[in-house]
Amino acid sequence: MTITSIKKSKGVKPLVMITAYDALFAKLLEPSSDMILVGDSLNMSFAGKSDTISTTLEQMIYHTNAVCMGAKNSFVVCDMPFGTYINQEEALKNAIQVFQETPADSIKIEGGADKAEIIAYLSSNGIAVCGHIGLLPQAVRSEGGYKVKGKTQEGKEQLIKDAIAVEKAGAFCMVIEGVKADVAKEVAASVGIPVIGIGAGKDVDGQVLVFSDMLGLFEEFTPKFVKKYMDGASLVKEAVKSYADEVTCREFPKEEHTY
Ligand code: KIV
């Protein structure tokens, strides 16, 4: 995929986006995905923290390089961590660092109309930006939790304003998270770039899921919008238990595993 083909997919086919944090999984996910997101959700799934707030730029650069090594043909989006785009200059300095130190195709920043000037500044300086509106995980502490958006008329109007502002600022697509399905549908219809949903119903221009959620590997909690396509945690535990049992009773290694 390229920026052009991603934009052209609107109204033609839903985009498949999935997160990855390492080369191993990126390689496995690449054949079935249009875009790979190195989400700052890695701070939870990979680093075991309770939210994304403490993610660092260095972490994002490290994991983005790993993902790009595993998925050499994918369009890769790198999330900008909390605090790295507080103004235009900081945002550009940090986005340039991502572009210079990784082969990522784009960065993603959270925020709507309030971030439009920053998105415009990045775009006009050669940084491809994926927006992120609706529920913003980086606002978890300031908002006192993960709050579904678009529940009131005012909330819906704000989301439409956000989407239009993000598009006008030059973003090539945006994620919409944690928004009532009927509202997300209206938001997607109000802009000309793809709106990729997570917890935003089916009537948007694509879907994104965190890979460890959809593979059932992340056991801490399961948001309502997650479908587990396999029970990864049970499969891994069963496999490791079999290995441990066989080691204990000297059943492994066998002749065929021995030099
Ligand atoms: O960090 C992440 O994985 C994300 C998705 C939830 C869209 O931003």
Set out the fold topology.
Layout: H1 3-8, E1 15-19, H2 23-29, E2 35-38, H3 42-45, H4 57-70, E3 75-79, H5 88-101, E4 106-108, H6 116-124, E5 129-134, H7 153-169, E6 173-177, H8 181-189, E7 195-198, E8 206-209, H9 211-214, H10 232-248
Parallel strand pairs: 1-2, 1-8, 2-3, 3-4, 4-5, 5-6, 6-7
Helix pairs in contact: 2-4, 5-6, 6-7, 7-8
Bound molecules: 3-methyl-2-oxobutanoic acid.
Strands in their spatial order, largest beta sheet: 7-6-5-4-3-2-1-8
Q: Look up the CATH topology of the largest domain.
A: TIM Barrel
**How much beta, percentage-wise?**
5-15%
SSE pattern: HEHEHHEHEHEHEHEEHH
The CATH superfamily title of the largest domain: Phosphoenolpyruvate-binding domains
Task: Give a quick set of tags describing it.
2 domains; 10 helices; TIM Barrel; binds 3-methyl-2-oxobutanoic acid; alpha/beta; about 260 residues
Structure description:
This protein is an alpha/beta fold and 259 residues long. It folds into two domains: 3-228, Phosphoenolpyruvate-binding domains (TIM Barrel, Alpha-Beta Barrel); 232-259. Helix content is 39%, strand content 14%. It contains ten helices and eight strands. It has helices at 3-8, 23-29, 42-45, 57-70, 88-101, 116-124, 153-169, 181-189, 211-214, 232-248, and strands at 15-19, 35-38, 75-79, 106-108, 129-134, 173-177, 195-198, 206-209. It has an eight-stranded parallel beta sheet with strand order 7-6-5-4-3-2-1-8. Strand 5, helix 7 and strand 6 (173-177) form a beta-alpha-beta unit. The structure holds 3-methyl-2-oxobutanoic acid.
